[in-house]
Write a structure and sequence with these properties.
431 residues, alpha+beta, four-stranded mixed β-sheet, 12 helices, 22 strands, binds shikimate-3-phosphate
Length: 431
């Protein structure tokens, strides 16, 4: 299915919107509640394809998960040692988070399992988890020569490690932390850059002994039980980012986005927007279920190009395609470097966003580890390829909103991976 967008560059936006629940937190809530002791309630969970993949995998491992109502899950935790051998291959669909986190969880179980996913997941690097997990004594092997999925895991007793991560990745960190729950001692992880810390926060919320120490070090000690909890999930800042980008370059526009997660390991995009000249105010801050959230108030105006600080790359990794869109709207040069991780996401996101924006008339140059873009461009509608990547499809939709004429974004059904309802919300805001 294509998404067809008729750009209205000067549209004045005055709207208040809500964003669906955070994807990263939803995955973790499902997985950790599944091994907690007793019933957990997960409110405002993200009911999107990626999280449905996690739900199905946990059900295949014997966990009862029901929808209490359309916003809420009830999960009957089996306890830390209560998962059962799956009756078939665990299919993670398109979800890199699911395959990497579950690999960590499954290494310390007393059964054998196989994890597999779609064509995109089968092209994503798994050596980054195979290596540390093997050091923990795990028996985890790729069934391909290139260390891609499928992965076969024969559960074994694990030992703790002291591991310095060569890549900044919350998925890898979380895989090691989940395996660390089953190791016979304290596991110590040192991050390359601080990445999203939802796993640490939720484990702590469930009364696991996990600590952040100076120098980007995290320690975790195994426990006998995780406490069952009620979790309320904030709106996903990575989804809110599309609407911030939709309003930020429209003079006099005002958008209020309610109940957005503002965990500081995720708010880099707000810093980028502010540095580019956008006017954003954060109001009604509160912390629920150990995660901060707030309402965001955006006023549109003129943007200027900036060089993105390399230290912030891990924090804005999912928003970088949108930063390219902002670069096309801003006056001057926007530079992104040291972002080669983008090449191993759901698609090669450097190639995909550069190609899409160039087809719409942006002056953008692809670099091995990022891109450079000179704006403001007079964007023109065209046919563009999403490469079946949800974040590329949504980023190109925002670019198209500022373009003259009609843009056809191909294969846009992939948006359902992280944000079902995006197209409706977009249409509602632009009405
Ligand atoms: C995620 C971590 C990031 C991010 C992904 C979600 C997570 O991936 O890109 O969308 O929930 O842990 P990496 O760990 O590969 O950087």
């Amino acid at each position: 299915m294509d998404n067809i967008v008729n750009g209205i560059k000067n549209k004045l936006l005055k709207k208040t919107i809500y964003i669906p629940g955070d994807k990263s937190i939803t995955h973790r809530a499902i997985i950790l509640s599944s091994i907690a002791s007793g019933e957990s309630i997960i409110n405002n969970y993200l009911n999107a394809l990626d999280c449905q993949s996690t739900i199905k995998c946990m059900q295949n491992l014997g966990v009862i998960i029901e929808e209490k109502d359309p916003m809420t899950l009830r999960i009957f935790g089996k306890g830390i040692k209560g998962l059962q051998a799956p009756s078939n291959v665990l299919d993670v669909g398109n979800s890199g988070t699911t395959i990497r986190l579950l690999a960590g969880l499954l290494c310390g179980q007393e059964f054998t399992s196989t994890l597999d996913g779609d064509d995109s997941v089968r092209k994503r690097p798994m050596d980054r988890i195979i290596k540390p997990l093997s050091l923990m004594n795990a028996d985890i092997n790729s069934l391909t020569e290139k260390k891609f999925a499928p992965l076969k895991i024969i559960g074994k007793p694990l030992r703790p490690i002291h591991y310095s991560m060569p890549v900044a990745s919350a998925q890898v960190k979380s895989a090691i932390l989940l395996a660390g729950l089953y190791a016979d001692g304290e596991t110590i992880i040192r991050e390359k850059e601080q990445t999203r810390d939802h796993t640490e926060r939720m484990l702590s919320f469930m009364q696991v002994d996990i600590k952040r120490r100076p120098k980007k070090i995290i320690t975790i000690t195994p426990v006998k039980a995780l406490k069952n909890v009620n979790i309320d999930i904030p709106g996903d800042i990575s989804s809110a980012a599309y609407f911030l980008a939709l309003g930020c370059a429209r003079k006099d526009s005002e958008l209020i986005i309610r109940n957005v997660g503002i965990n500081k390991t995720r708010t880099g995009f707000l810093e980028v927007l502010k540095k580019m000249g956008a006017n954003i105010t954060i109001i009604n801050k509160k912390v629920i279920s150990n995660e901060p959230r707030a309402d965001l108030l955006l006023k549109g105006g003129l943007l200027k190009g900036i060089k993105i600080d390399q230290k912030i790359i891990a924090n804005i990794i999912d928003e970088l395609p949108l930063v390219a869109v902002l670069g096309a709207l801003a006056k001057g040069k926007t530079i992104v470097e040291q972002a080669q991780e983008l090449r191993v996401k759901e698609s090669d996101r450097i190639k995909a966003i550069v190609e899409g924006l160039a087809r719409m008339g942006a002056k953008i140059i692809e670099k091995e580890d990022g891109f450079e873009i000179i704006g403001p461009a007079k964007l023109k509608g065209n046919t563009v390829n999403s490469y079946k990547d949800h974040r590329i499809a949504m980023s190109l939709t925002i670019a198209a909103s500022y373009a003259e004429g009609k843009t056809i974004i191909q294969d846009a059904q992939c948006i359902d991976i992280s944000y079902p309802g995006f197209v409706n919300s977009y249409q509602e805001v632009m009405k």
